[in-house]
Amino acid sequence: MESMKKIFRNKTALLLVVALIVGFGGTFAYLSMTTKKEAPKSENSKTQGNSTVQTEKGGGLDQNNAKTQTPAPAQEKAPTSTQTSLGSINASVTAQKSVSDDSISILFYIEGSGTFSIQEKSGSTWQTTKENVSYAGTGGLNAGVLAAGQASKTLRALKIENGKYTAVTKEFTINRSEVDAALGIKTYN
Fold first, then answer.
1. Over 70: is that where the pLDDT of 89 sits?
2. Whole-angstrom Cα distance, residue 2 to residue 85?
3. Which residues, including other chains, have CB under 8 Å from residue 24's CB and lie 6 or more apart?
4. Cα separation of 111 and 89, whole Å?
5. Is the pLDDT of residue 82 over 80?
6. Which of 16-20, 49-53, 73-77, 139-143 has the weakest average pLDDT?
7. Strands 164-168 and 87-88
8. CA atoms of 19 and 44, how far apart (whole Å)
9. Scanning 34, 43, 74, 148, which has its CA 20 to 30 A from the CA of 117?
10. Which residue, 90, 94, 95, is CA-closest to 110?
């Protein structure tokens, strides 16, 4: 008991004890208030008993009429020559070597979103490898793989709008030696 009297005589110790009590009390009060809050009620929620039921008003989605929208496929054949009258799209390509095998994944990063076809150059003509692929404009558009043992691949992407090809990226040649020299990942602009 005498040690307690000595503590209370020392003003610094007294202030420290009071600060700790106030701090713990405030923390406890804050936590008790935040955990007891009810979920905010919106204008489209009703309370029934102890539960809240969400209701749809006006602009909500009707689950029975929800449809997945798929882009319209191109109604014409993709151009197969190098020279086209299509507009141009800004894009870059990233090639990344797999750690499990010797393949290289290829991703297009295209300015804007839309529907695209991917073509690979074979000799002097272009062959479509992926058709009618939807791209949200973020992340990468999968353009395929440079298989193990394959030295290079030349690709381009074509944009489809209203069933017609409207624009094309420049052609990108992905070389295995360049990706290897860049320590497994290379971006082509």
1. yes
2. 97
3. none
4. 7
5. no
6. 49-53
7. parallel
8. 46
9. 148
10. 90
Burial of 71 (0-12, 13-18, 19+ CB in 10 A): middle
Mean pLDDT for the chain? 78
**pLDDT, tens digit (0-9, with 9 covering 90-100), for 95-140:** 999 988 999 999 999 998 999 999 999 998 999 999 999 999 888 9
Provide the percentage of residues in the chain whose pLDDT is more than 70.
Answer: 73
Question: Which of 144, 115, 108 lies closest to 131, judged by CA?
Answer: 115
Place of tokens 């990226």: 169
CB 155 within 8 A of CB 137: no
Write the CB contacts of 189 (distance below 8 Å, at least 6 apart in sequence): 92
Measured CA to CA, the distance from residue 43 to residue 102 in angstroms comes to: 56
DSSP lists the bridge partners of residue 96 as 105, 185
